[in-house]
Design goal:
The complex is a heterodimer of chains A (153) and B (115). Chain A has 153 residues and is of the alpha+beta class. Chain A is built from three helices and five strands, in the order βααββαββ. Chain A has a five-stranded antiparallel β-sheet. Chain B has four helices and five strands; from the N terminus they run ββαβαβαβα. The chains are: A alpha+beta (153), B alpha/beta (115).
Chain lengths: 153, 115
């Protein structure tokens, strides 16, 4: 489809959510409540993108809560930004360094009861990155908001 | 967000476990207990009605797999009905749609005997 027919113009990223997350399961509910506000303020975001982005972010937050926020009073910072072509979430936490390799994560066998978190994130986002800087973990996920392909059934 | 769960005996072999809310790490234990309760009452065919579940994560999925394995070990099966869009998305991308049967209704799930 020619770009001129997409009515899809670039816009600079806008911060749509910012949260401080404590190390408890309620962090996930807080993130989802915040995303609910984002979705209601931006109905132009296709349902497929919403489901994928929310699922990926919930998995990432669950991992951070489980592995990084075990210390007394430890918190993580979440920032969600939106532009016309992508939704991005950045989380920084003070937990131990992640020593795995995001390039070599595979989906467990269907009968496995755990270990799917990272592979679910990888399957749902276009960018999943990790870096360690000054004793802090930095996680980023990006879901590109490509227009729905109307030529497909 | 919590999960509301109810279990009823459909017939002498089948229990229907209905859930609404979110199926995640916080609620996975409730599902495990409901499946164990059905198996204790000799209902090894378990129909999981996910009609009210609007979100599932990998921990919730792990609990479903655990229930499936328990039911099959007891000589039965676990079948899913009324899966919403997000649940179906997760089942497909984790390849679980290959081992978990998904049906449109409780009647269809109960009526489909294994070959």
């Amino acid at each position: 489809m020619p770009a001129s027919k997409r009515r899809w113009e670039m816009s600079p990223p806008e911060e749509v959510a910012r949260l401080t997350l404590a190390g408890s399961d309620s962090a996930i509910g807080e993130v989802q409540a915040e995303l609910a506000h984002v979705w209601s303020a931006h109905p132009e975001i296709d349902l497929v993108h919403r489901m994928a982005a929310e699922t990926a972010l919930v998995e990432l937050v669950a991992n951070v809560v489980r592995y990084a926020l075990r210390g007394d009073g430890a918190v993580a910072e979440l920032r969600v930004t939106l532009s016309s072509d992508e939704l991005r979430a950045d989380i920084s936490d003070p937990g131990p360094e992640f020593t795995g390799d995001l390039h070599h994560v595979t989906m467990p066998e269907p009968t496995a009861e755990s270990g799917r978190g990272l592979s679910v994130i990888i399957a749902l986002v276009d960018v999943f990155s990790y870096s360690r800087l000054s004793g802090t973990n930095h996680w980023s996920i990006v879901r590109r908001l490509t227009p729905p392909d109307l030529t497909r059934g | 967000m919590t999960l509301t769960i109810s279990a009823r005996q459909h017939d002498e072999r089948t229990a229907v476990i209905g859930m609404s809310g979110q199926l995640s790490a916080m609620s996975a234990e409730q599902l495990r207990e409901a499946v164990a309760g059905a198996l204790e009452h000799r209902r090894s065919r378990i129909v999981l009605d996910l009609g009210g579940v609007d979100f599932i994560d990998s921990s919730g999925l792990g609990a479903v797999i655990g229930g499936l394995k328990s039911a099959r070990q007891a000589g039965g099966d676990l079948r899913i009905v009324n899966a919403g869009a997000q649940v179906m998305m997760i089942l497909r991308l984790t390849n679980l749609d290959q081992i978990l049967r998904v049906y449109a209704s409780v009647e269809a799930a109960v009526g489909d005997e294994p070959a």
